[in-house]
Amino acid sequence: MSTPSTDVEAQVLRLMWRETIKYYNKHLASNQKDKILEKSVDDPASPTCGLGEFIHDVESALSTRYGPAPKQKGLYDALQNIQLYASIGDVMIQHQPHITALIWGAARLLLQVAVEGVGLRFHIAAAVSHVLQKFDRCRKEAILLRNNPEAFNAVVRLQAHTLNYLFRARAYCKRRHRITFRLLGDAFQRKFASLWSKVERADQELASFIRTHQAVEQVEFRTGVGKTVLASWLAQRLSQPAASAHIYSRSNARGALLPQSLLLAAIVQLLRARQCLVEQLKPAFWDNLQSLVVPTHFPLQEIPCPLLFTLLTEVLKLLPSSVLIFDGLDECPECPAATQLFESLLSLKADPNIKTKIVLLSQRTPFLDQQLQVLKRLDLCANTMSGPIEVYVRKRVEENQQLQDLHDDIIRTVVEGAQGLFLWARLMLDSLENADSIMQQRALLQEPPSGLMDMYQRRWDEHQQDLGNEQIKQRDEVLLLLAGHTHPVDLDVICEALVLFTDPTIPAKEKKFFYRGKKIKQLCGSFVEVSGNDVQFSHSSARLFIERLHRRTNQNPYEYLLRISLSKLRELQYRDWRTCLRLLWMNIFGGEKFPKELDFQVAESALYNHACLNWQTYVTHLSRLPDDLVEELRSFILGNEFVTWSENLYLLRNKSGLEGQLNVVIELRQWYEQLDQDTRPELPISTIFIEAHESLSRDLEQNAGNVLARFLPLMRLGWFLSLAARSFGDLQQDLDYKTTVAEGFLRYLGERDPITLQAQLAMYADYLWKGPYDFALERIQAVYDIQREVLGEDAPDLIGTRTMIAGAYYRLGQLREAARIFQEVLERILTTMGGMSKAFLAGELFLGEVNEFAGNVQEATRLFRDVEKKWVDKNGKTSPFAAALFTGFGSIYRRQNNFDDAAGYLIDAWSQRVRIQTTEHPLCVDSALQLAVLYRDASKPEMARDFLNEVANSSVFGVSFERVCQRTHIQAMLLFDAGEYTEPRNNLQALILSSIGEDREKNNRELLWVRLNLAEAMRRHDEADGALMLFTELVTPIRDDNSIDAVSINTLHDEPEPVHQLQIAETGLRLIRDGRYEQADNLLLREGLAWVRPQDFWIIFGGPMADTATMHLRPPATVSIEK
């Protein structure tokens, strides 16, 4: 019941009371004398009673008379609850309409009855408490919802029913004799229970309206207006009967709040609010949630928003009603994840199974205006917030004895100076409370109102006077450290970085939190807050002030943090080759053959772990590096300490692979390329990761005294380049490392040692990209046979080997055999590792590629969708694995003429490959070719040519003749589509001529499809004989001994093949292109023919390779016959 300090709020409250009285008089008053005069709204009230003082006297009397009697606990609790409202109401009542005096007087009478009949338990006192809460909430909600007539009317109805309850209770108690007071408790509860139910029903109608009308509402603020306070109040207000969650993951930096953190917080808070959901949610929900929140160091931004929103939706569907209040949305970056978050929240409105009210709290930004333009908005400005600020100021002044002498001046000056900003009011009151004298308080009040930054400057200057030189230095370092992070920093990290409070004599309990947290707060004052073990700026405006201070003093927090990080990462213990070797051995071999000399421990360090995860972020925030930092960074990248960092990052990321290292390398390369070439420092970025591991390998060969030691860094290089290779040269280097390792293990361990067998498999796996594929199959099969003898039939290692065998058959074009083995492997993985394991999903991806290539679109789609659901939705799109899946999806949708979805998937794959591998890698070239085929099919020739141009200068075409054939084939089809003939015909004929006769070994799968399309084009131009000649050297008769004739025929003119044989060759190719492999085999067998060269059907290594088999000639727009 606070004072409306603006004309707008005064008008709203008078209108609310006027409508309340009308409703009460018309629908609820039992007779004429019970009606309320409407003019009471305009009459000022007089403070006829002081409810707060009255309650204080009552509590004293009760305590003196009865002591802490258990039976009076309910009454004490009720009185304490009323006290929250009474202390404000007593002060403000004189400024409100006369009706509030009537309410206050009725409440006082009821309380007096309750106290005098103290034996009546606490029913009447509790009733007064509930009534005052209702009126307080009605006042606030009327102001907030004033622009919505339906909501405002719902508030009026609730207030009228509450008023009716209060006045009837007053009349009932006034009619009772004092001797009956002791009997009033139970009778009062029985008498008024049904009446109170009407009040609750009106309250539920209001809550229902808030939940169901306008499912999402945006409330906009200025900095410091008090949005977080409001969010907390809304969460408490709307928590009954709905499950409520106030989601606020503060970063205190614009663009630094991750959408994923908001969604995860919403899930967790709703689960806490409704414990019964634990049993209702399915096991799959908990499996997915656990996989996201287990203690790992995966960056939160790598978790896909759609997966988190799916989990949130599952929770919301089980709730009868819920309220989600998302606070600080203006701190979200302008990124796809934020767009996904807003789209998902808006989609809740259309789901009939979800009864959710969403309130979005933010400062106004262009990005949010664009994303949330369809929402209803409420702007909290100076006019709407000055009333609540006055309530806050008055309460603080009343509660603080130091502010009593200038009571009225303080209230007036602070309310006027705040201009609607809670934060300004709080800071000003803090300064007044900390003043040394009334004279200093008066001086503060007489100063012109200052902005937030000026107030921070004053607090900065005042606080600094209490610090010594060493403390000032420590404070500056803490603030530099915080300024370089958009998230809270661990207290242990700060203390270790600054060598603060590390005295071994300090008790462990104090070190853990109390001692150190208090000291950090003493150093930094009100600019930081310490919560548990997290340290962060107290407000975004405090961060802004410190950042401005750093700019004025030329201090760069990222430079400071990089110095600290490199200093820690390069400590002597991390440069020691023994530390590197121990980590490599444990991470690669586990306890297998573990050398005794490596049996030691390195002390745990919070700062080291922090530096491991963040050093590259500090680097990439700097556009120029001082010379000493350049040298430190170069030494780190080239030294043993880099290997130590890599292995520790592997552990921090839960041994999930080397994707973390790859992302760091990509981030550094992008940063380095963007630096000004004139000032760019000389850093070994192009060879990062490689040089440090090669150097360590040489170091271990000289010093380790273990014949296997030098091979471990090379094993890591092989695994890393399998992900990070950017060209055919890198792929060859990858094979060289693996060959060196395999030969070394074979020499020292023998051919039957399990470690040797794994090294050989890693080497032969690279032959699945390099070829020859029949050699790869032979060698992998040989290793498989030895593994079965050494390890047994049920050994887990055999699963991976069998998968590689299936991959070899796929490369050989034997799709049915490959599919059979893949299916067998999947069944084994399913029983041993489960359907969510990476091995199972990789097997499904490979089997999907086989089915897609064979034309089994439905089965391929099923497999790809399962992988997408289990992997991509959980791990995101930023990985080579996801890019391979998207390429498969794109090819399937293109087959079905669903060009929009195909383009979406293929462009995602292209984007990731350009980012990770560049256009010098064959996988990236494959993505460009896939997109060119897609846009040609979609009749968008210019876009097809654009993607061909993207890779036109790639060195891949100088190494891979089949990809040259693919590019030329696509270009020719585009020319055919445009009505050209001679140029594309000549280009395709030149390809075929370069792969026959002496160059027959250059023939490949792509040239088979070239022959079919070129033959059709030639027949349209009356060149049927020439068309048939294209199918020479493809099939040959089978002799009686089941061998085939050697082929050396160059042209039909020299020694023509039988026409029928050429026709069979063409028909067989068409059957294979259409996926009818068995019919093609039967046709050749029936005619006594066989394919001349199985290698013609091999499927080259790719991501997967562009599938041009489905490209068909279509009638050109115009026909131009040139002779």
Automatic annotation (TrEMBL):
Repeat in keyword set: yes
Matches recorded under InterPro entries: DUF7708, NPHP3-like_N, P-loop_NTPase, TPR-like_helical_dom_sf
Record's keyword annotation contains DNA-binding: no
Residue stretches spanning the membrane: none
One Pfam entry name: DUF7708
Keywords, in A-Z order: Repeat
SUPFAM superfamilies noted in UniProt: P-loop containing nucleoside triphosphate hydrolases, TPR-like
Domain named Nephrocystin 3-like N-terminal: residues: 223-362
Domain of life: Eukaryota
DUF7708 domain span: 79-213
PANTHER family: AMELOGENIN, NACHT DOMAIN-CONTAINING PROTEIN
Protein name: NACHT domain-containing protein
Organism in which the protein naturally occurs: Cladophialophora chaetospira
